[in-house]
Hints:
7 strands; two-stranded antiparallel ribbon; alpha/beta; 5-stranded mixed beta sheet
Amino acid sequence: xxxxxxxxxxxxxxxxxxxxxxxxxxxxxxxxxxxxxxxxxxxxxxxxxxxxxxxxxxxxxxxxxxxxxxxxxxxxxxxxxxxxxxxxxxxxxxxxxxxxxxxxxxxxxxxxxxxxxxxxxxxxxxxxxxxxxxxxxxxxxxxxxx
Length: 146
């Protein structure tokens, strides 16, 4: 039987956990993105401006401007989602629960591929990245019950 996976994340680090029936949580993979912890000024934030999204004549669509820190958050979300999508396509897990701080949870959900999205069983706007494995198991059980 395939295991359940649980992603505990914020914009700079994440742990992918696996739960099999009757077994404790196990860390499958860790992700770290120190650039998300940097200041925008350290990341070389570009001056304010807008970029035209529509290249056609007379197009008036403008993409919203992202600062360097937001770009790093999105880059991290895409890196994790690519890994999850590959694993989902290989059938490595039966379900995925997401626990991430807001607004990163939304960025992560938006980046997920179709195979991964089909396996998402729950999403929780909660940052548990600093919680140890034993307490984490209890917190996840508590959240799942609600």
